[in-house]
Here is the input.
Amino acid sequence: MKKIFITLALVILTMSAQAQLLYKISGKNLKAPSYIIGTYHLAAVSFVDSIPGIRQALNDCQQVYGELDMSGLTSPENVMKMQQAMMLPEGTTLDKLLTADEMGRLNAYMNSLLGMDMTNPMVAQQMGKLIPQALSTQFSLLTYMKKHEGFDPQNLFDAYFQKYAQEQGKGIGGLETIDMQVNVLYKGMTLDRQKQLLMCLVDNQEFMDELADKVVKAFYAQDLDGLKAAMDMKMNSACDSTPEEDAALINNRNADWVTKMPAIIADKPTFFAVGAGHLPGEKGVLNLLRQAGYTVEAVK
Here is the structure.
């Protein structure tokens, strides 16, 4: 929850300070500043130049770091790791994991989204062997694509910065490994909990659509407070993430990144591009960097 401020001037000042995606990291005897930007994985690359100061920040930095070093994502080894992590155990299919009633609700949802469902043998072959978490991710992506015409999965905001760095002959790196992300995204929950969250998506389409729309709107408004408020929306049911799940997906990773960043930025001025949801809040990367003694300022 946002703090309640006494004066209107203080409210305006605080809101304007958070209406940014790009921040400068300086102080603590750094030879040159580094920068960090909050990204949205599905945002269009065309939005890059709407962000004040971004070209100068990229030019001033000698390397770009993301959550992952994306140059190795398409290697056969890493593709295999991702595929294996997304698949149910051998001999298990989704229709064995879900009850007949749950399959009926899932099929109704899929028909509204895709115009086809798991009764189609080709769909069942492609999607019926995915773990529920992977299926939820696929549905979220398909929903976004349906709402945003012209979406190009080969030309995304997230990937732009490392691609730009390579074109400029600059170094790239990642704060995490593919194994770390696989464990967080696909192996961090039991199949029962994954199934529960899949059915939450299926049964609460209006709420999920509203949440996703708020996240997208806040990102394009460069409103980190609005983004965090959307991420914190609750249904007051088992569909809400637990504190342990929030820690695994967001907070623990933030803390881990901030232990790695000092050595990186002491070596070279670095441009970090990570999911915008990791930046705001008491346990967000911006606040953790400040607690570590750095000056973190919005770039305007």
